[in-house]
């Protein structure tokens, strides 16, 4: 009897504890489940390593998007090499497996010939502010956008990352100095045309393979902005860096075309707001990066830095003009209109 009474008492106590806990106002799951929706993830792939100019752009973009959306959109950034090479990243965007990516004209021009305009030397102005104005020109953007859209991509931004330098184990002061030089190029035929016009032997190679190719003597030289040369340690296997001020490295920020078109109005507003002011932000970043890395290279004592004179640059400019003809032939009517627009905006003669 006592046992039965004891069991009944314990059951009553347990019931008394559970009933309040199961009330509508104090669910036992409260605090474990949230009514907030899971954040939407935008995957963003880079052509450069962490700590680079592209990484700075992506990290600032991520910060802005997450603030604007109050965390409803989060951005995952994938540095170069983590999910593929540059052409593979563009393919991932086209396939919709990555939402955003950097895409340089050095490989994009394989599929979008108009993009090869950024590989033509001595075309864009030397002044940074004037160059930004040209890259922001509505007519120029519309012509470029048409090419990107034909390839299933949405062009979101153009990001200048600094002047391209030439490195080799000899001085490159004249086009004749390029004679027989095996010069690593990106895969786009347009860049190969430029170095071929100067007498070099173009050797297309992925960015990740350049250091080993230089070290093993498979190529004799390469071209990249200062910060990339320092970050990838090319100065360890090259002894002379020439400063030609001929071509800027301009990367594009792209998205999948269908993904961009299907964004709802709120997400589209966040995307546009996050991009606002980015050209000025990243231009300051790239100038600082390249300035600091140039100083580091000089102080390393491992590579000689040799700027070209105006007369030397003029010789290279004249020798490169056949590459513009090759661009016209490859990029067609749209490419011709792009070339004329850039020349007009930069105050150049429209006939070469």
Automatic annotation (TrEMBL):
Keywords carried by this UniProt record: Signal
Record keyword S-adenosyl-L-methionine present: no
One Pfam family of this chain: DctP
Leader peptide range in chain numbering: 1-23
InterPro entries: DctP_fam, TRAP_DctP_sf
NCBIfam families with a match to the protein in the record: TRAP_S1
Protein name: ABC transporter substrate-binding protein
